[in-house]
Write a structure and sequence with these properties.
heterodimer, A: mainly alpha, ABC transporter involved in vitamin B12 uptake, BtuC, 13 helices, globular, B: alpha/beta, Rossmann fold, 10 strands
Chain lengths: 354, 316
């Protein structure tokens, strides 16, 4: 067992560091640039100068060169989509970082504990049972996906605890729950083959038809989870040393795990509800942050939040422009751009990941 | 929600209009031919499906199983309804089809064989269904999903020949073709082509002018906003929300009213869509999902809806 309190299991040669303000300022600035560029360009060829003029007109009360429909494209379609991509990316990336911290496993991702399978199953059941419910503030499908994600994680947690607790047991319970829920989903689909297309087009993930409403309903969950995770990041650093050492410092590892998993799952569920299942963000972004800025969770969690937002905004930008006026599933983009980039970072930091 | 009574009234009006303009008997094709015009002597018959080996059918099939809704509709329209013993779970038209829980998407060979069919008509050889059924000495005819209107007509002739109703099959194809052309000819000539968006689902999948759906709109001189998006030439691209708004189509046709509860009201409530020309002018048309996706005899009904919408839009 390790004895030194300053060691970290993912990267033993680096001591936990504080997050430097300069890094935060720079990354937030880059995020602002990414948001701006992404809002200026899109599938509808409005001309970025005209969009700038529109923004200027909104700010100063002047005359905009854009028609009402074109202004609608910018304010009601493009901007909320960019913001939502940022929120979803931030949620998945910080949840991934948190899961990796709790399980002390570099392969952990936000869907590890059955969130994806739960959401998929619930979404399928809703598509089958209530195909044409409309007019709710939030559609039945996002609600079901949210509840399903939370339900899947809860089931995993209860099963894991009844089997003796511990992170390894929890992981195995997650595998079992995910397989079980996926089996139910497949069974329901087989009985209702006409709904398969709808279910899969949701599962592929995408932000094509989102608006401010989706931003408003996810913001509270993701915001709250973000605050909790950033506050708990220091505790994750302590957990990384080992449970016994954490206890000797007066920290209750079990409670920390519950709080962190709860917050991360809440963020994941909110993200899944509005965007479907977008893979790769939760696992790659924290590692990129770790390789570039250091392995301390005090650095990794907040930076993952910012870099995750950036990454998904860029990915979604590609998804909506590369084949424009057609759409590309965003999951394709996250994997296609994320994987080579990740390998590049790995190579540049040879030997630093164990 | 669309008002079914109003829709029916509109349909009736359209039918009356057509019936008045053309000679009697051309617009209605719903009733089955009274006596089979064709006799046993056309068998054995060899038919050649578009993608596959020629198939020789020795005797008139009397126990047909149909595993796709479009082919079922065609079977009944050519007068082979009495020979059909089972249809799949998606076939629901005409109302008296022998509906079962057979699946065309995940077919169960034993369940199909349980109906002791002498001809199985499918649209897709899922899970090597053809090979499995041939092992059980059952004849299988694959009539694939129509890509174009010509495929629709070819499918009608093919199903007619295979079921012993070659005449009726050819009649149905010719009648469908002439009905469509008549509807198009009678619709107002547009000075400027109207643009349209045909919605398949709420994630904005659409059908281009290359598909049989798009070809029907094309008959009326409508121009499709999905065409530039069809990079893979698959015919069914997913459109960008921004593109639809920027294109600002004159007409919006909803093929997702049953699956996804869409209507003119839900479309108007979508972010940014309230300013669209089609929404403001009341030119959002709720279609029956089935009509807007099946390549059977009811393509004429789809064309009638389009004709209604075009004449309304060209007036306004």
């Amino acid at each position: 067992m390790l004895t030194a309190t300053s060691r970290d299991t993912t990267r033993p040669d680096v001591t936990p560091t504080r997050l430097r303000p300069a890094v935060v300022v720079v990354s937030v600035l880059v995020l602002v640039v990414v948001i701006s560029v992404s809002t200026l360009l899109g599938a509808a060829n409005l001309g970025w100068t005209r969009v700038v003029a529109e923004v200027w007109a909104q700010l100063t009360g002047g005359v905009s060169p854009l028609s009402a429909t074109e202004a609608g494209i910018v304010w009601e379609i493009r901007l909320p989509r960019v913001v939502l991509a940022g929120l979803v990316g931030a949620a998945l990336a910080m949840a991934g970082a948190a899961f990796q911290g709790v399980f002390r496993n570099p392969l952990a991702d936000p869907f590890l504990l059955g969130a994806a399978a739960g959401a998929g199953m619930a979404a399928t059941i809703v598509v089958v049972a209530a195909p044409s419910v409309t007019g709710w503030v939030i559609g039945p499908l996002p609600l079901a996906a949210f509840a399903g994600a939370i339900g899947g994680v809860t089931l995993t947690w209860l099963l894991g605890r009844s089997a003796g607790g511990g992170t390894a047991v929890l992981l195995l319970a997650g595998v079992a729950v995910a397989s079980f829920l996926t089996a139910i989903q497949t069974f329901v689909q087989q009985l209702n083959t006409d709904t398969i297309k709808q279910v899969y087009s949701w599962m592929l993930g995408g932000l094509n038809t989102t608006g401010w409403r989706d931003v408003l309903v996810t913001l509270p969950y993701i915001g709250l989870a973000g605050i909790v995770l950033c506050v708990c990041a220091r505790l994750l650093d302590v957990l990384a040393v080992g449970d016994d050492e954490a206890k000797s410092l007066g920290i209750h590892p079990g409670r920390v795990r519950i709080v962190v998993l709860l917050a991360a799952s809440l963020a994941t569920a909110a993200a899944v509800a509005v965007s479907g299942l977008i893979g790769f963000v939760g696992i790659v972004v924290p590692h990129i942050v770790r390789l570039v800025a250091g392995a301390s969770y005090r650095v990794v969690v907040p930076l993952s939040l910012i870099v995750g937002a950036m990454f998904l905004i860029v990915a979604d930008h590609i998804a909506r422009t590369v084949l424009a006026p057609a759409e590309l599933p965003i999951g394709v983009v996250t994997a296609f751009t994320g994987a080579p980039f990740f390998l590049l970072v790995l190579r540049m930091n040879r030997g630093q990941i164990r | 929600m669309s008002n079914p009574i109003r829709r029916r009234a509109r349909r009736l009006a359209a039918i009356a209009l057509v019936a008045g303009l053309v000679t009697a008997g051309c617009a209605e094709r719903a009733e089955e031919p009274t006596a089979p015009k064709t006799s046993e002597k056309q068998f054995p018959v060899t038919v050649t499906p578009p993608s596959g080996e020629p198939l020789t059918i020795d005797k008139r099939p009397e126990r047909i199983v149909s595993l796709s809704a479009s082919n079922t509709e065609t079977l009944f329209a050519v007068g082979a309804g009495k020979q059909v013993v089972a249809v799949d779970d998606q076939s629901d038209y005409p109302a008296d089809v022998p509906k079962t829980d057979l699946s065309g998407l995940n077919p169960n060979v034993e369940a199909i064989a349980g109906y002791d069919p002498d001809l199985v008509i499918i649209s897709d050889d899922a899970d090597n269904l053809v090979a499995s059924l041939e092992q059980l000495k059952r004849q299988v005819l694959v009539v694939p999903a129509a890509a174009t209107l010509d495929d629709v007509y070819a499918g009608m002739k093919l199903i007619g020949e295979a079921s012993g109703h070659a005449e009726e099959g050819k009649d149905l194809a010719d009648r469908t073709k002439s009905d469509l052309e008549k509807l198009a000819a009678d619709s107002p000539k547009l000075k400027q082509p109207l643009t349209y968006y045909h919605e398949l689902d709420t994630t904005l999948y659409s059908a281009t002018s290359k598909t049989f759906i798009g070809q029907i709109y094309g008959l009326f001189g409508l121009s499709n906003i999905a065409d530039p998006a069809d990079k893979d030439k698959g015919g069914y691209p997913q459109l960008s929300n921004e593109h639809i708004l920027a294109a600002d189509p004159d007409l919006i046709f909803l093929g997702d009213t049953k699956c996804c509860g869409q209507s003119a009201k839900t479309v108007a409530a979508r972010p940014g869509w309230g300013n669209l020309k089609a929404v403001k002018d009341g030119n959002v048309v709720a279609l029956d999902d089935d009509l807007a996706s099946r390549w059977g005899p009811r393509v004429v009904d789809l064309a009638e809806s389009v004709a209604d919408a075009v004449s309304k839009a060209s007036k306004g």
